Amino acid sequence: MTKTITFAVMHFGIAFTVAYLLTGDIVIGGALALIEPAVNTVAFYFHERVWQRLDRRRPLVPGGHAVAA
Predict the structure, then answer these.
(1) Domain containing 13: what range?
(2) Each residue's pLDDT tens digit, 2-37
């Protein structure tokens, strides 16, 4: 859990820094640091669903493992 939290803090920090450096606006930097990870999280959810569907369509080899694409 500590690793996840420190990664999240790092992600927010990088998002804020990049947005601030590009815009020069602390409010926009803060907003983007909050919005971008939230949008990324939703996108990741759908990305995982697509991959789960693809995995279900792959034939299984003896032993129950999916065949590599």
Answers:
(1) 2-66
(2) 888 888 889 889 999 999 999 999 999 999 989 988
